[in-house]
């Protein structure tokens, strides 16, 4: 990548559970050279409100250069096609 691309990641990290898909998404983004803005959803209420606001059923949620990519599987497809 000539210019460092930016990714915004929203992922769930609760006191008793860290979403493995969020961890995977972050690692994938970093591996592919993205500067990651890592936004942690640290309570069930915060996670539920985020999901409702973005009309999604799960986290993580990834945006690259302002474009909604989706969850971890969507990110994997996006990166495979680059």
From TrEMBL:
Boundaries of every Glutaredoxin domain copy: 9-69
Pfam family, one: Glutaredoxin
InterPro entries listed in its UniProt record: Glutaredoxin, Glutaredoxin_subgr, Thioredoxin-like_sf
Protein name (Swiss-Prot/TrEMBL): Glutaredoxin
């Amino acid at each position: 990548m000539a210019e460092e691309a930016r990714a915004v990641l929203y992922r769930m990290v609760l006191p008793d559970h860290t979403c493995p898909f969020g961890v995977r998404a972050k690692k994938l983004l970093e591996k592919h050279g993205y500067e990651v803005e890592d936004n942690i959803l640290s309570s069930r209420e915060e996670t539920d409100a985020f999901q409702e606001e973005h009309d999604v059923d799960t986290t993580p949620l990834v945006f690259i250069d302002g474009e909604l990519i989706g969850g971890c599987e969507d990110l994997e497809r996006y990166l495979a096609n680059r």
